[in-house]
Design a protein that fits this description.
The complex is a heterodimer of chains A (about 500) and B (about 150).
Chain A lengths: L1 E3 L4 H5 L2 H15 L4 E3 L13 E5 L2 E5 L21 E4 L4 H4 L17 H6 L4 H7 L3 H10 L12 H10 L6 E6 L8 H8 L1 H15 L3 E6 L4 H16 L7 E6 L9 H8 L23 E5 H13 L1 H5 L2 E2 L2 E2 L1 E8 L5 E6 L4 H8 L9 E6 L6 E2 L10 H6 L8 E6 L4 H15 L5 H18 L4 H18 L3 H5 L1 H10 L15
Parallel strand pairs in A: 1-2, 6-7, 6-9, 7-8, 12-16
Antiparallel strand pairs in A: 1-3, 3-4, 4-5, 10-11, 12-13, 14-15, 14-16
Chain B lengths: L6 H11 L6 H12 L4 H11 L3 H10 L11 E6 L2 H4 L3 H12 L12 E6 L11 E3 L2 E3 L4 H10 L2
Parallel strand pairs in B: 1-2
Antiparallel strand pairs in B: 1-3, 3-4
Helix pairs in contact in B: 1-2, 1-3, 3-4
The chains are: A alpha/beta (about 500), B alpha+beta (about 150).
């Protein structure tokens, strides 16, 4: 009997280690021969810990499991188990997805090379080895892949720039400083399928002629750091990474290091200060050398693109947003988790149909899309298709793909103040609009919330947001106005203003 | 308990990282792991070894939230205060929890048992509110959950 007990941060945080031990003990007591596989999570987090048992029909799931539910797993009638959820592959949340990047997540043992290879692993790298570097860059360009960290810059063009740069040493740097609240896709793929990221980075190395790679991984993800380090040792010892030295570097709790140039300074051993561009990192990046710096999801998308072909990836999506996006449903949501789908699905489908509305059962009031620097959306905007340009047209951003749902108890003035407070807390301090503006923004919001000269102070706040948006060096100061201004526009009643009559909108 | 400062042991730790490119952060992590915090002796030694000014090392230590310049309690409870956890009521829980302990954010109980810190996102955003006790993650942590975690930290 094969039993799968996930080992990712979420399931471990919900007791899966104890669960695995209890299942082993129960099996021993009953004299049942059981092999327990610690798979990655499927990303159906409301069901975690989700235990799966292999049957002739497929893997059947049980979740969310508690220790008290363990003996029932050894009963004759598995379908009658109180936590039975049936065949996992048939759960609508999973069945409706298009898992290209996350295809193996939750299915395999993350640290089993045999599992990885049995599920198409290293096929992309094999194909890349048969290609000229220019052809690898062209494939990534043709796939339409855009940077999944948030900026949406075409990955293939970035690679081509590094490829044609002349230097003794080039670098591949993976940005795994996933600091946005409501996002966990980087963490999930690193914990559930680390070889996929390793393969993507090795392909990038071949494409641009880089022999060294770094993964900058945030210290808040201790399990991801541990799993990725083990996976790199396994892949290196198996001889799968010839002429490519890969190393994990742990962050130190600075959100701004998710900004690519601050990350490079941090890797070099400095304060994580944002650099002015140009020069761009593709030409003068880590230690001044040409550097590919990509988000985890961009690099992890590459093995599929090389294996299945650029056209297969580009066939998904809409407009200039090609391929799939791992959307992360988070916050006050009934069915939270990772939902990988082609661009084009609407916000409302994601929140209501897939996510099932709020966890509290109360009405949805606001959704923050794209992390702490992303705009709030109201249910009246739920027809917005998930697409870089469609979100931008509504003054929002897709960012790293997070959606944080709030019910009707949320105070949006408080959330706007939090955005400013967070920016003040995390600003690197290099540019004035971000360093000073965020603190002044917080103070101005305090006045508005205290009912002090509300109209005047709101004007000042909007003016300040303009300055931050256009005057800041990077997205931290530049995008903090998104949540603030969207909250002001959509929920004026929370800021002491009279709501606009419907006809005036 | 973390051991008292010991220059020769610190030198041994630093030596392990000197072959790395950009070794500053790995060295500081390792020293803090061993001694619990980065004191002035550590800053002086790192500056000397890497041939940079003390101001430069101090600048790095003070920039990152992870690095501490003073010891904290025997246990550290980090409570997530980011948006996804807020949407599940984390702020109200945390405030009540801090009140019962009579602590501010970043404070340590008088017996030196527990330090409570804020953290911005542990990546468990679909199962909030979340917290981390001494490096162990916990999800779906309500007020009772926080109190239970504080009880575990003896």
């Amino acid at each position: 009997m094969r039993i799968f007990v996930p080992r990712d941060s979420v399931s471990v945080a919900l007791g899966s280690d104890k669960l695995a031990a209890a299942i082993a003990a129960q099996a021993a007591e009953r004299g049942v021969d059981v092999s327990i596989i610690r798979n990655g999570s499927r990303g159906l987090f409301w069901l975690e810990p989700l235990v799966e048992i292999e049957t002739a029909q497929g893997r059947v799931g049980f979740g969310p499991m508690t220790l008290a539910d363990v003996p029932g797993l050894f009963a004759d009638n598995l379908a009658g188990h109180p936590k039975a959820v049936g065949l996992v592959e048939e759960i609508p949340f999973l069945a409706k997805q298009q898992r290209l990047t996350f295809a193996r997540c939750g299915i395999t043992d993350p640290l089993s090379l045999a599992d990885y290879q049995a599920h198409d692993g290293f096929k992309g790298l094999e194909k890349a080895r048969a290609l000229e570097p220019a052809a690898i860059c062209a494939a990534v360009k043709d796939s339409g892949l855009r940077g999944r960290g948030g900026a949406g810059f075409p990955t293939g063009i970035k690679w081509e720039t590094v490829r044609t740069a002349k230097a003794e040493q080039k670098y591949i740097v993976c940005n795994a400083d996933e600091g946005d609240s409501g996002t966990f896709a980087d963490r999930l793929i690193i914990e559930a399928d680390p070889f996929c990221l390793i393969e993507g980075m090795a392909i990038a190395g071949l494409a641009v002629g880089a022999t060294r790679g770094y993964v900058y991984l945030r210290s808040e993800y201790p399990l991801a750091i541990q799993i990725l380090r083990e996976a790199i040792v396994i892949a290196t010892e198996a001889g799968l990474l010839p002429n490519f030295a890969l190393e994990v570097r742990e962050g130190a709790g600075a959100y701004v290091c998710g900004e690519e140039t601050a990350l490079l300074d941090s890797l070099e051993g400095k304060r994580g200060m944002v650099r002015a561009k140009p020069p761009i990192p593709a030409l003068q990046g880590l230690f001044g050398q040409p550097t590919v710096i990509n988000n985890v999801l961009s690099l992890a998308a590459v093995p599929y693109i090389l294996d299945a072909g650029a056209a297969a990836y580009a066939a998904c999506g809409m407009g200039r947003s090609r391929g799939t996006m791992p959307v992360q449903l988070a916050g006050n949501i009934k069915h939270g988790g990772l939902f990988e789908i082609a661009f084009g699905i609407t916000l409302g489908e994601l929140i209501n149909d897939i996510g099932g509305g709020t966890a509290s059962g109360r009405p949805v009031r606001a959704v923050q899309a794209g992390g702490p620097l992303g705009a709030y959306f109201a249910p009246s905007q739920f027809d917005t298709p998930y697409d870089y340009e469609a979100f931008a047209a509504r003054d929002g951003l897709i960012g790293h793909g997070g959606l944080v749902v709030f019910d009707d108890t949320v105070d949006m003035a408080h959330m706007a103040r939090f955005a400013m407070e967070f920016c003040a807390h995390e600003s690197c301090g290099k540019c004035t609009p971000c360093r000073i503006g965020s603190t002044r923004g917080m103070e101005t919001l305090d006045k508005i919330m205290a009912g002090e000269k509300v109209a005047e102070n709101t004007e000042i706040l909007r003016d300040l947001c303009e300055t931050m948006k256009f005057g800041s060096l990077c997205a931290l100061g530049g995008f903090t106005p998104y949540p603030v201004v969207s909250a002001l526009n959509l929920f004026p009643e929370d800021f002491g203003a009279t709501p606009l009559p419907a006809a005036a909108e | 308990m973390t051991p008292d400062w010991d220059t020769s042991r610190a030198e041994g730790i630093i030596a392990k990282y000197l072959q790395l490119e950009g070794p500053m952060l790995p060295i500081l992590h390792a020293l803090q792991e061993e001694f619990g915090y980065i004191n002035d002796d550590a800053i002086r030694l790192v500056a000397q070894t890497l041939n940079v000014s003390r101001a430069e090392v101090y600048g790095v230590v003070s920039f990152y939230h992870d690095f501490r310049q003073a010891p904290h309690g025997r246990h550290v409870l980090k409570i997530c205060r980011a948006e996804a956890c807020q949407s599940m009521g984390s702020e109200a829980n945390a405030q009540k929890f801090l009140e019962t302990l009579n602590l501010e954010w970043g404070g340590t109980t008088p017996d030196g048992r527990l330090t409570v810190e804020s953290v911005y996102c542990l990546g468990l955003c679909a199962c909030g509110p979340s917290a981390m006790l001494d490096g162990d993650l916990h999800a779906r942590v309500d007020l009772q959950g926080l109190e239970a975690l504080a009880g575990e930290a003896v």
